[in-house]
Amino acid sequence: MSERSYISGNYGHLQRLFFFLGCIFAVNLYAFNLTVDPTISVSETYTDNVNLARDGFKDDDFVLSLNPGLSISTDSRMHESTFNYVLQKVHFLNLERTDTFNSLNTDGEFEFLKERFFTEYNIRNGQQNVSNTGALATDNLSINNNRQNVFSYQVHPYWIQRFGTLAFLEVGFNFNEIISDNNDSTSELIDIKLDHGTLFNRILWDIDFSDETIDSEFGPRTVFRNITGNVRYLLTRKFALIAAVGYDDNEFQSSDDISGELWNAGVEWNPSRRTSLSAAVGERFFGTDYRINASHRTKKARFEITFDQTPETTRQNLLDQQVFNLSDIFGETIIDPVTGQPATLDVLVPRQTNEVLINRQFRLLASYDYRKTFVSVEFFIRERDFQLTGDTEDNYGTRVNWRWDLSPTLNTDTIFDYNVQDSRQGITSDDIRLSFNITKNLSRDLDINGGLSHRIRQSDSGGNEFDETRAFIGLTRNF
Q: Distance between CA 290 and CA 413 in Å, rounded?
């Protein structure tokens, strides 16, 4: 029998993890309100393609997953925090192999001086795909060399100073680090924001300055430096003109201009509390800058359309991502269509690289909630332009989720996922997933669930083509 552990890259990384965990537990001992919720789940999954291989190289297996976990929340005068940890033990029967995974997600905030000095922090440890052109895993129940462990933490102290009704100033510093199996990086960010006070009721304004330096184990230093002034002029209670001017002073490897003036202008319209629309157009160092955000809500339905363009890095996607309970723009938990459990691996994170990329994204979302039925539909188009190599990652796809409550203790989820990815290297990959899951509440603290799923991945790179069928059954106990 072989065993592999996905904890962190080396012993030094473990020291960092245990140091932060020790600090959190020490603080929680003095919390006024402390809630501790242990949980354990166990599942047995049959897969006809455990190694996500193409036809002729597939291996089937029975996969046993044991997942003890712990959730802690605190609430005191100075400190609020949430702590979620799961130890996942995965045993592959036919391969006689056992893997161990650690997943951690904790967030907290200290208030050292009332309404003045605060410190936010978070710690993440989870698994992520390395390349989107390889065999994409959606969980840890596959044998996959394209997956690696990612550990990160952020510390963000900031000071708020109010100047009567004229304005308030926020000055912050953010230090964060990402540690993965093949690349480590750190970031130092200074963020200063001067915002209007209550004295202003028709012309609303703010000035933002940020200066971020990113150092990577492999690759040159990256600097994002920006100052922007924003103005909203309220013509009426429902209609406003918006504008922004500023300057980007960046330092990173690129074949195009990376610094220069920026501006945009547009309108905001809020005809009711349920409907809003904003649109703006301008120029930035990467070209014409468009932004659209429209939403409408009724008692049973919700619609939203967004389009934006932003410079970003892979590491920022990893920092922003929650390890547990990934959610969509409506706040609904994303269910993994393969396991029937809340998803933990986001397959739409860009490939792991030190490059800066320009992300252009359009999203259309709709949901309908009526009595025992909830249906959500998402359609997206995303273009990512890598600034050094000139590579691109173009994605489009849709996701449909139908939840049906058969009774107060019995519900089903039917999920359809379709994702297409094109790269400049000429590789096109289609990923289709369909699943049906059913969950029964046996008691207030005990659930049983099971289901079937089928996945097809087609690609111009034949080595990355595969299909997989799974069946699973699982139990979850909360204490």
A: 36
Q: Which two tokens stand for residue 460?
A: 């111009």
SS3 173: strand
Q: What is the DSSP letter of 336?
A: P
Extended beta strands in 55-202, E state: 61-75, 79-92, 97-113, 117-129, 147-163, 167-180, 184-196
pLDDT in tens, 30-41: 556 788 899 999
Distances (CA, A) of 234 to 26, 60, 165, 243, 471: 49, 63, 19, 12, 57
Q: 335 φ, ψ to 5°?
A: -90, 130
Helix (H, G, I), strand (E, B) or coil at 13: helix
Residue 218 scores a pLDDT above 70: yes
What is the fold of 2-478? Maltoporin; Chain A (2.40.170)
Cα(201)–Cα(223) distance, integer angstroms: 36
Domain limits, the chain: 2-478
Residue 443: both structure tokens together: 């008691």
Asked if pLDDT for residue 180 goes beyond 90, the answer is no
Nearest CA to 394 out of 366, 359, 365, 368 is that of 359
| 319 phi/psi in degrees, rounded to 5 | -65, -40
| CA–CA separation, 358 and 402 (whole Å) | 33
Which residue has tokens 């291996």? 59
Cα 343 from chain centre: 11
**Within its chain, how far is the Cα of 218 from the centroid?**
24
Rounded percentage of the chain residues whose pLDDT exceeds 70: 85
